[in-house]
Amino acid sequence: MVIGVTLVNVVPGQEKAAYNELVKVKGIKDVYHVFGEYDFVVISNVEGLSALNKLVDTIRESENITATQTIVGAEL
Length: 76
Known about the structure:
Elements: E1 2-10, H1 15-22, E2 28-33, E3 40-46, H2 49-60, E4 65-73
Antiparallel strand pairs: 1-3, 1-4, 2-3
Pfam family, one: AsnC_trans_reg
Protein name: Transcriptional regulator, AsnC family
InterPro entries: Dimeric_a/b-barrel, Tscrpt_reg_AsnC/Lrp_C
């Protein structure tokens, strides 16, 4: 299992639309709206790095998403 933490920026004013898209993506476990440099923190849980890559690609396809940064976590 691979845990991904993706920091997401969205088009200003499109936070609700972006949230509604993100919560529908398979593999995303939690979406948190945050304040500061990023608009959302997205927690995902997938089978491997290639699945995480595909999930992040899916997030980036949204017209409401302007940028992402992903941190990969693994169990010790």
